[in-house]
Amino acid sequence: MLIAKQTTLLKKQATCILLALIADVLFYQQPVGWTAGLYAALVFTMLVVFNRHLLHTSASKIIGLGVATLIVELVESPGLLPILIDGLGLMTLITLQKRKDLASATLWIKDIALFVERGGWQWYRDCKAIKRISKNKVLDKVNYSFAVMPVTLTLAFSILFILANPIIEKVLSGLNWQLLNPFISYSRWLFWFLISLTLWMMLRPRFLLAKEIVLGQPINLDRWLNKQTIILSLALFNGLFFIQNGLDIVFLWHDEDLPMGVTYAEYAHAGFYSLLAINLLTSAFVLLTFGDHRQAFQTEIAKILVFVWLGQNIFLTLSAINRLLHYIEAYSLTYLRIAALMGMALTAIGLVLIFARIQGNRRNLWLINANAIALTATLYGVCFINMDRIIANYNVRHCLEVTGLGSNIDLPYLQSLGPESLPALRWFQVNAKYSPVQASKAGELITNLDNQLSVESANWRAWTWRKQRQLATNALTLKPEPIGTSGWRY
Predict the structure, then answer these.
(1) Domain end call among 363, 382, 401
(2) Within-domain flag for 483
(3) Which of 65, 281, 424, 469 gives 396 a disulfide partner, CB atoms 3.0 to 4.6 angstroms apart?
(4) What are the backbone angles phi and psi of residue 359, rounded to the nearest 5°?
(5) Which range marks the domain in which residue 141 is found?
(6) b/e sequence 447-482, b meaning 16+ C-beta within 10 Å
(7) What total of structural domains would you count in the chain?
(8) Is residue 376, in this structure, part of any structural domain at all?
(9) Per the domain annotation, does 11 fall within a domain?
(10) Based on the domain organization, do 127 and 72 belong to the same domain?
(11) In 10 A of CB 137, how many CB atoms?
(12) Quick one: 146 and 290 in the same domain?
């Protein structure tokens, strides 16, 4: 039994060193391309090889399929988000093997936290274990002091032979010792240490599962709330929200002009953070008064009023999305604005789930899990969307230089998106009839991005399927298309 454990430990040590070496070749001071997918596939395969029960449950098979799909996406076009989600997927598989079931989102978060905390020191614990094992071996009984003299004299003779033989000295002096410099840099040592630490953490998962928190007695709200207070509060809240939603209906949904001196930028920016706070307060109030063990407050009138209030909150969130869409149409699309749209959409989904939780008389744990699934599904789906292409295409088709409306094209921002903006820039160069100057600048930018794409594709590490397809269509000449003044075209 002891020999089997030692053999498994040695195999994992060799695998960890091999994977760290591969990571050094693929990533150290190198651009990231399809190699991210290759390395993720290697790590996933090694985990399955060392742990045959990793994909035995139905949940683990679903997560494993998701991880494999992300690996394909990393070969297609690597990004920080798919890399992070892929890592979380691998850690989830490891924790799920012990728990056997995804009980709740809160337990999953705590399991991951314990896994990372324990795994950060696992190498140190294993070093101590290896030291204890080695005490039972024959080699440990050898007195290593006997090796001092032969090793020392061998080194001394070597140095003297080098000094005495000019041929050996000339050969050694002719060697390019600078080749060793990259291997003795502190940054490379740190890279190896972090990679090895992460790999060993996954190869040797030794952690305890988190325990579910047993909530005590609910907070006694009888001093501040009763049935009549809940009904009065919900009636007042509905009145306030009706006024706000009425203004949004007039100025947003009926396309009425904003009051003098108020721009869509001000209207959108002023609303986002305050609306987010409103939704958080709404959620807290509803969960507090209609949460677990609050049946005393849940009268039929109160349920009707809270459903109406939640409906108004959802409409308020949709109005905020409409505000942002107006703002994007007047100005341009960016990553932050896409993130804001996604955040608002998830907020609306969260409010709908609160409605379902109250109507179905479910527990707060169900609500937490449902929101976690919605967030995970959204982030997972985003990994497969070419946001750079969408942003570039939308901005060139809605800019002032093409439509005669909206804001000027932000060419530096398109340049920051990289070669993915090339098709949009080529289209813009042909269709920018209101600004030949900007069309000429776009041509210069196209040349620079073409060169960047060629340089990146020439490096085998930076190659991706998406870049290869882009290179294949790089020589196509776009013809003028009919100009649209609205709509999300890409």
Answers:
(1) 382
(2) no
(3) 424
(4) -65, -40
(5) 1-174+182-212
(6) eebbeebeebbeeebbbbebbeebbeebeeeeeeee
(7) 3
(8) yes
(9) yes
(10) yes
(11) 10
(12) no
Give the predicted TM-score (pTM) of the model: 0.78
Distances (CA, A) of 290 to 2, 296, 307: 57, 9, 11
| 108 and 157, same domain (yes or no) | yes
pLDDT of residue 182: 59
- Please tell me the distance from the alpha carbon of residue 316 to that of residue 312, in angstroms, as a whole number: 6
Same domain, 352 and 318: yes
Please answer whether residues 94 and 172 qualify as being in contact, where contact means their C-beta atoms are separated by less than 8 angstroms: no
> Which sign, positive or negative, has the C-alpha torsion 364, 365, 368, 373?
negative
Structure tokens at 60: 């683990």
pLDDT given for residue 296 in this prediction: 64
Instruction: Give the tokens for residue 474.
Output: 């790089």
472 and 378 Cβ atoms separated by less than 8 Å: no
235 and 316 fall within a common domain: yes
Domain-located, residue 484? no
Within 10 angstroms of residue 306's Cβ, the number of other Cβ atoms is: 26
pLDDT beneath 50: ranges in the chain: 138-144, 177, 215-216, 477-480, 482-490
How high is the pLDDT of residue 214? 54
Considering the domain architecture, whether residues 377 and 238 belong to the same structural domain is answered as yes
Residues 242 and 307 both lie in one domain: yes
Read off the tokens for 189. 């040592």
Cα–Cα distance, 368 to 137 (Å, whole number): 53
Q: Do 49 and 162 share a domain, yes or no?
A: yes
Condensed to tens digits (0 to 9), the pLDDT of residues 267-294 reads 655 566 677 788 788 888 887 777 666 6
User: How far is 13 from 442, CA to CA, in rounded Å?
Assistant: 53
Q: Report pLDDT for 483.
A: 46
Exposed, middle or buried: residue 325 (CB in 10 Å: 0-12, 13-18, 19+)? middle
Give the CA distances from residue 247 to residues 240, 242, 254, 256, in Å, rounded to whole numbers and listed in that order.
Answer: 11, 9, 10, 10
Q: What confidence score (pLDDT) does residue 75 get?
A: 92
